[in-house]
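Think of the structure tokens as a kind of shorthand, similar to the way a musician reads notation: each symbol stands for something richer, in this case the local conformation of the backbone. In the example below we present two proteins back to back. Begin with the first one, reading the sequence and then the tokens, and try to describe in your own words what changes along the chain.
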Amino acid sequence: MKSLEIMLWIVGATLLALFAGTQAWGEIERQRDIAAFVQARQPPPHLDDALWSQTPSHSPAPADAVLAILRIPGIALEVPVNYGTDEWVLLRGAGLVEGTALPGSNGNVAIAAHRDTHFRGLKDLSLGDRIELAMLDSTQTYVVTDLSVVEPTDVHVLADTGEPVLTLVTCYPFYFVGHAPQRFIVRAVAATPSI
């Protein structure tokens, strides 16, 4: 009986260490991605600012490249946005939901992240809060217009709008053990044109 108890303690400690290590790795990657994105926004030293501003930046990026940085000043959130929503992307930050508009374009830009890491702070958002989505060549500002809870099958929240809107998606309730049964949706509309 004593050896079983010791083995259970070892397994528990190992699982906790793996969880902590994974979370630490995700945070390191988040910070690295943000730093790389900020550096990519700077003009190369051999180009002057006038030439840099005329250089098109809408060329296809590698699949692992950061598309944008999502910032919500009111809840001190800053997270890189990558392509897709697989587990490796969501460990590092947020992911652009496949089939939705690209950041900086007209349409519904849908971004997802985990409720127990990067999007935990969404629970503290209020109508009228400001959200910034920084791309390589511009920053789009959005204003929160709707907060709702939907079923996972309610994919209408991802539908194209034809207008610049931002939809943030995470699991709900925020404090839930296991797979959360619903989705928390933040809808925001463009406040100003892209600069």
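Once you have a description of the first chain, move to the second and do the same.
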Amino acid sequence: MKTTIILALTALLFSCTAKSERSTNPPVLSTALKDSLNQGNPNPYYSRTDTTKLHVSNAEWKKILPPDVFEVARHKDTERAFTGKYWDFTGVGTYYCAVCGNKLFTSDLKYASECGWPSFFEVDRKNAVRYLRDRSYGMERVEVLCGRCDSHLGHLFDDGPPPTGKRYCMNSNVLEFAPKIGLSSGGQ
């Protein structure tokens, strides 16, 4: 619990140095983490180092997560295009699952797809995510889930750039960004 608070405060401290060429006020802490810290009720499942598979009920997640994060993460909702905090964000650092802290992507794997959601061409590590076939809404897609907590992150498409040709089209509110430590605000 103390580790979660220390990580959150560290991320908040370094958020002052994160700047984007497109976004002028980059968010650093997820809504879920900020809300749980403000309520004095940190998410006990959140860890940026633990990769142990979580088995938490939706009822438990509902107690911990803000409604917008819960709807995307647990009910597979989608935020509106061009509205998420990271769709045009260009800060240098790492993207984590906002629900459990699992490391998902780094900024060098992100690209401007202009689709309205943050897009990446590859995950940070093989087991960071898992995939499910999604045939909802009469479409054939591949759903991307967090490999640790099974939260819905977005979808995978085959229209991305080289070298993978993949586009991980993610929802901003289930991502949390941590800036790379040691960068000056002018270098981003």
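Compare your description with these statements about the second chain. The longest strand covers residues 129-134.
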